[in-house]
Amino acid sequence: MNNCYVVMGVSGSGKTTIGNLLAEKAGVPFLDADDFHPPANIEKMKSGQPLNDEDRRPWLFRLAEEISNADGGCVLACSALKASYREILASGPRPVIWVYLEATKELIRERLKERSGHFMPPSLLDSQFEALEVPKNAIVADVSKEPDEVVQMILSESAERE
Question: Catalysed reaction(s) (predicted)?
């Protein structure tokens, strides 16, 4: 595989869980965009402030570089909430397959209450949904289903598109 899957959605949608499982099944490296945030971004989110476009831009270009350098493909878990962010991520030579993890705000809110050790507080959830621009031409995955089922659907649909 030479493509890079970008597993996207709001915080708590399951990007890391689905992304790790997808990477394992596809036999490619998994990258978590959260690992590439500069310390200032993490501190801003920890303090309850949402990131703005200016905060995100250097981070997105760094991720685009990671995608470009992923020989043999990869899976990247990244919120990629806006079309302009996705344009940056797809700006390199490697083809990108977008996977949008879709869920209700209620489901996400419940998941965030149960999650511990993450720098983004649940109080920022509304800002995530406000910023979300649902992608066109993405594989849409209903994350109320079990992770194995979601990943199988993603792999089946991406095979049909090739």
Answer: D-gluconate + ATP = 6-phospho-D-gluconate + ADP + H(+)
